[in-house]
């Protein structure tokens, strides 16, 4: 068994912390090579100390200085690299065999793509990378023989339920015998709240997910169900599945993480506690199954599993996501970028929860109404992403 040396991009976040928890359980199989943080430098220092990481990546000179000041005397500090380009360089570094892509938002795309170009084992949590540049990313994985393992719980579940070829790559057609992918969704904290109360909800209420503990951005996405929309687009790219063959099913308990429906009428499901250490351990251990630290699911204590149709009136962001996937890549880039701006604005108490969908819809209208630029390269994608952010920020200001 080859020792894995893991580069954890976004190590100070929710996925990053869970990844370090799993790695620490398997010193004989894996170790940390590199870590990255954006604002939580103190936490990064503690992580680097505990894991003996060789490299850390921070965003700027001020963060570097802070890291140096906080590093305890008496032990050699890790190499400190600075800036977005250093993230790409570290993701592609010979020192790493495996890259956990756990930066939030499209900011994580360049480093995830660099890992693919370098032919790494990529554990992909950063769904926004696929939403913005799914075609480019999957093509890069294919061309450079990278190994791609989905970490997002639903996609990890689907990966586990698909006919196993023992390979973790980038399929160019749907798996044989599969009729549909059934993506489960909790419905978030506002699934049953009276519709007229939704405009009053606070950021903390939106971040109080009923089943999962996650970062604030994805928690708001779960509350609007834009998260499920991003996941439909993610599933389309990961499994080469046409949008008509992807169904979203509300499952409030978040115990069935997703399902694959086969031509013969069988449905295969993956179940487990809502704890991201299970998919993370699956990715780190693949093809072996390794301990994740997650307890067993008590089915008799649970008693029942519920399923229902999503309500597109309550969750307009889900409708917008299906429409964007149908409209093409420019719309998907705009959907994601406008959402990132709208969610940040909501978390900052500048716009209301119910205005998030409006910002996205207006931005999509403005961007996709213009001539679609070429989107063949990372630079093209990032240019449209930046343009959308400017437009969405204007709409947020108008609504504030
Ligand atoms: N949390 C979960 O359970 C799940 C998350 N995902 C996906 O995984 C990704 C990470 O989510 P989550 O861990 O919840 O997010 P968090 O907000 O908890 O963590 C995000 C990480 O990214 C870093 N970061 C933020 N902005 C930048 C930037 N501009 N450049 C570089 N690094 C940055 C943060 O650094 P710092 O903290 O130092 O500021 C942090 O390490 C998202 O794409 C999410 O959709 C998917 C499924 C489940
Ligand atoms: C843990 C995970 O994968 C999240 O994306 C989670 O699925 C969010 O839950 P819902 O979006 O279904 O509420
Ligand atoms: Mn998910």
UniProtKB/TrEMBL annotation:
<feature type="binding site">
    <location>
        <position position="153"/>
    </location>
    <ligand>
        <name>1-deoxy-D-xylulose 5-phosphate</name>
    </ligand>
</feature>
<comment type="pathway">
    <text>Isoprenoid biosynthesis; isopentenyl diphosphate biosynthesis via DXP pathway; isopentenyl diphosphate from 1-deoxy-D-xylulose 5-phosphate: step 1/6.</text>
</comment>
<feature type="domain" description="DXP reductoisomerase C-terminal">
    <location>
        <begin position="271"/>
        <end position="390"/>
    </location>
</feature>
<dbReference type="InterPro" id="IPR026877">
    <property type="entry name" value="DXPR_C"/>
</dbReference>
<keyword id="KW-0464">Manganese</keyword>
<feature type="binding site">
    <location>
        <position position="231"/>
    </location>
    <ligand>
        <name>1-deoxy-D-xylulose 5-phosphate</name>
    </ligand>
</feature>
<dbReference type="GO" id="GO:0016853">
    <property type="term" value="F:isomerase activity"/>
</dbReference>
<comment type="function">
    <text>Catalyzes the NADPH-dependent rearrangement and reduction of 1-deoxy-D-xylulose-5-phosphate (DXP) to 2-C-methyl-D-erythritol 4-phosphate (MEP).</text>
</comment>
<protein>
    <recommendedName>
        <fullName>1-deoxy-D-xylulose 5-phosphate reductoisomerase</fullName>
        <ecNumber>1.1.1.267</ecNumber>
    </recommendedName>
</protein>
<keyword id="KW-0414">Isoprene biosynthesis</keyword>
<dbReference type="InterPro" id="IPR036291">
    <property type="entry name" value="NAD(P)-bd_dom_sf"/>
</dbReference>
<dbReference type="GO" id="GO:0070402">
    <property type="term" value="F:NADPH binding"/>
</dbReference>
<feature type="domain" description="1-deoxy-D-xylulose 5-phosphate reductoisomerase N-terminal">
    <location>
        <begin position="6"/>
        <end position="134"/>
    </location>
</feature>
<feature type="binding site">
    <location>
        <position position="209"/>
    </location>
    <ligand>
        <name>1-deoxy-D-xylulose 5-phosphate</name>
    </ligand>
</feature>
<feature type="domain" description="1-deoxy-D-xylulose 5-phosphate reductoisomerase C-terminal">
    <location>
        <begin position="148"/>
        <end position="239"/>
    </location>
</feature>
<feature type="binding site">
    <location>
        <position position="215"/>
    </location>
    <ligand>
        <name>NADPH</name>
    </ligand>
</feature>
<keyword id="KW-0560">Oxidoreductase</keyword>
<feature type="binding site">
    <location>
        <position position="14"/>
    </location>
    <ligand>
        <name>NADPH</name>
    </ligand>
</feature>
<feature type="binding site">
    <location>
        <position position="13"/>
    </location>
    <ligand>
        <name>NADPH</name>
    </ligand>
</feature>
<feature type="binding site">
    <location>
        <position position="222"/>
    </location>
    <ligand>
        <name>1-deoxy-D-xylulose 5-phosphate</name>
    </ligand>
</feature>
<dbReference type="InterPro" id="IPR013512">
    <property type="entry name" value="DXP_reductoisomerase_N"/>
</dbReference>
<feature type="binding site">
    <location>
        <position position="154"/>
    </location>
    <ligand>
        <name>1-deoxy-D-xylulose 5-phosphate</name>
    </ligand>
</feature>
<feature type="binding site">
    <location>
        <position position="12"/>
    </location>
    <ligand>
        <name>NADPH</name>
    </ligand>
</feature>
<dbReference type="Pfam" id="PF08436">
    <property type="entry name" value="DXP_redisom_C"/>
</dbReference>
<feature type="binding site">
    <location>
        <position position="186"/>
    </location>
    <ligand>
        <name>1-deoxy-D-xylulose 5-phosphate</name>
    </ligand>
</feature>
<comment type="similarity">
    <text>Belongs to the DXR family.</text>
</comment>
<dbReference type="GO" id="GO:0051484">
    <property type="term" value="P:isopentenyl diphosphate biosynthetic process, methylerythritol 4-phosphate pathway involved in terpenoid biosynthetic process"/>
</dbReference>
<feature type="binding site">
    <location>
        <position position="15"/>
    </location>
    <ligand>
        <name>NADPH</name>
    </ligand>
</feature>
<feature type="binding site">
    <location>
        <position position="228"/>
    </location>
    <ligand>
        <name>1-deoxy-D-xylulose 5-phosphate</name>
    </ligand>
</feature>
<dbReference type="InterPro" id="IPR036169">
    <property type="entry name" value="DXPR_C_sf"/>
</dbReference>
<dbReference type="GO" id="GO:0030604">
    <property type="term" value="F:1-deoxy-D-xylulose-5-phosphate reductoisomerase activity"/>
</dbReference>
<dbReference type="InterPro" id="IPR003821">
    <property type="entry name" value="DXP_reductoisomerase"/>
</dbReference>
<keyword id="KW-0479">Metal-binding</keyword>
<feature type="binding site">
    <location>
        <position position="227"/>
    </location>
    <ligand>
        <name>1-deoxy-D-xylulose 5-phosphate</name>
    </ligand>
</feature>
<keyword id="KW-0521">NADP</keyword>
<feature type="binding site">
    <location>
        <position position="231"/>
    </location>
    <ligand>
        <name>Mn(2+)</name>
    </ligand>
</feature>
<dbReference type="Pfam" id="PF13288">
    <property type="entry name" value="DXPR_C"/>
</dbReference>
<feature type="binding site">
    <location>
        <position position="127"/>
    </location>
    <ligand>
        <name>1-deoxy-D-xylulose 5-phosphate</name>
    </ligand>
</feature>
<dbReference type="InterPro" id="IPR013644">
    <property type="entry name" value="DXP_reductoisomerase_C"/>
</dbReference>
<feature type="binding site">
    <location>
        <position position="128"/>
    </location>
    <ligand>
        <name>NADPH</name>
    </ligand>
</feature>
<dbReference type="GO" id="GO:0030145">
    <property type="term" value="F:manganese ion binding"/>
</dbReference>
<keyword id="KW-0460">Magnesium</keyword>
